[in-house]
Specification:
Distance between the termini: 48 Å
Helix content: 25-40%
Largest sheet: 8 strands, mixed
Order of helices and strands: HEEEHEHEHEHEEHEE
Low-confidence stretches: 188-198
CATH class: Alpha Beta
Radius of gyration: 17 Å
CATH superfamily: Class II aldolase/adducin N-terminal domain
Mean pLDDT: 89
Shape: globular
Number of strands: 10
Number of domains: 1
Length: 198
């Protein structure tokens, strides 16, 4: 278990999908959750960085479970997910600030993720609003962006949720590069046109 967390935590950091102390990982085991602790360095996880707690109640004697513990619990209690990766992919966050949905324009992205919803909330980090709004979207989608905050990906194992996270960032990088090369920020999926800032 620790080795799995270490592998994907390190890969997320090296890929630039989290900063030194951001993001979190979790897995669902029966009526328990294993989740990274608050402010853990995902690129350098150790045994003490993993917290075991309840599926419905944070019953860990350690009070340093991730600030997103309630969001992870809500997802597990309302979807078939067995693993969650929460990351802060830069290009995806930037695109989430101007789009309500992200549509891949490349072949690989379109094959893997047909669209990525962007969820708006007044309070985006560990809020009850996110706990209520995010699980229904993750029933129908592999990954969802919370506007201006980050992505939540689900899977049957951490590797699957990690794949959707890296795929999302690649999709958004391709969109960004294409719009930059074109010299504008035209949305291919609507008539809106957003000029590239000078």
């Amino acid at each position: 278990m620790l080795e799995e967390f270490k592998k994907f935590g390190r890969d997320l950091f090296l890929a630039g999908l989290n900063n030194s102390h951001s993001g979190n990982l979790s897995v669902h085991l029966g009526d328990r959750i294993i989740i990274t602790r608050r402010r853990a360095m995902l690129g350098h996880l150790e045994e003490g960085d993993l917290i075991e707690t309840g599926l419905t109640k944070n019953d860990s004697k350690i009070t340093l479970a991730s600030t997103e513990i309630g969001v992870h619990q809500a997802i597990y209690n309302n979807t078939a997910a067995l693993a969650i990766v929460h990351a802060h992919p830069v290009h995806a966050i930037a695109l989430s600030l101007i789009e309500d949905e992200i549509f891949p324009i490349d072949s690989e992205g379109s094959y893997l993720l047909h669209k990525i919803p962007v969820l708006s909330a007044e309070h985006t980090i560990g809020s009850q609003e996110i706990e209520q709004k995010l699980p229904p979207l993750l029933k129908e989608n592999k990954i969802v962006m919370v506007r201006g905050h980050g992505s939540f990906a689900v899977g049957s194992v951490l590797e699957e949720a990690y794949q959707w996270t890296t795929s999302l960032e690649n999709i958004c990088r391709i969109i960004y590069l294409t719009r930059t090369l074109r010299g504008d920020f035209k949305d291919n999926n609507s008539s809106k046109h957003k000029a590239w800032p000078n």
